[in-house]
Amino acid sequence: MPLLSGPRLAPRSGQPKQLVVFLHGYCADGNQLIGLGRQWQPLLPSAMFVAPNAPDPCADSPIARQWFPLTTRDPAERWRGVTQARPILDEFIGETLQAYGLDETRLAVVGFSQGAEMALHVGLRRPQPPAAIIGFSGILVGPEHLDEAVAGWQPAARPHVLLVHGDCDEVIPVKDMLASADRLAAAGIPCERHVSVGVGHALDESGLQRACRFLAQCFALPSAGPKVARRR
Predict the structure, then answer these.
(1) CA atoms within 13 A on the CB side of 40
(2) Is 231 within the bounds of a domain?
(3) Residue at 217 is within a domain
(4) Cα–Cα distance, 215 to 77 (Å, whole number)
(5) Is 147 helix (H, G, I), strand (E, B) or coil?
């Protein structure tokens, strides 16, 4: 199975000490999010940012990409989609960590919309949990399968999750994000949420700033203030 490819942004400091994987939304590509790396570099100067293009051409635009098809709002379709797309993304993350000499404690997975669904699905099923998972304008797919995903983890090693959503999202209602956050918290996964007022299915400055500070805290960077505490 070939590895994914896409734009990358090298750390400002030179040597990578963290890896941030951006996962774009439906009918887009890695260029949708890689620019966030430049915005976040002041707080994350040693982070390597990578934004792989999804493996499949998008049905709605052959020049764009999709992690899986979206033909209905059927939860079963989304579950099949994230499950089928997981192996190639898992392989990409593992080989990229190895290439830069990093482990899962130095990993963050960040996604938008369909990419957020992939970030949650794959991040919560890594053999060792990443430091952080951030989902913009997305949901937890297959919450009924969450217990099997984290069954082998120690409570102290669980990743921290931040979900960011606009309260005017016309594609995925904010109530669905709040329900996802509640399911994660019920499973013992520390989950923060940020609701951007007056924002639709999009990124906004307040959410992006919150996400950057969250990553810096999860990576225990001095400029970020106190580290996010692990739940025990």
Answers:
(1) 33
(2) no
(3) yes
(4) 31
(5) helix
State which residues form the domain around 171.
8-224
Would 96 be classed as within a structural domain?
yes
Q: What is the mean pLDDT of residues 196-216?
A: 97
DSSP E strands in the chain: the ranges are 8-9, 18-23, 47-50, 56-58, 61-66, 107-112, 132-136, 160-166, 191-196
Residue with the larger pLDDT of the pair 204 and 228:
204
Q: Could you give the number of structural domains in the chain?
A: 1
* Coil, helix or strand at residue 221: coil
Residue 226 has pLDDT above 90, yes or no: no
- The pTM (predicted TM-score) of the whole model is 0.93
Residue with tokens 């794959």: 122
CA distance 115 to 108: 13
Residue type at 113? Answer: S
Closest CA to 162 of 193, 188, 207: 193
DSSP string, 169-180: -SSS-HHHHHHH
Assigned domain for 1 exists:
no
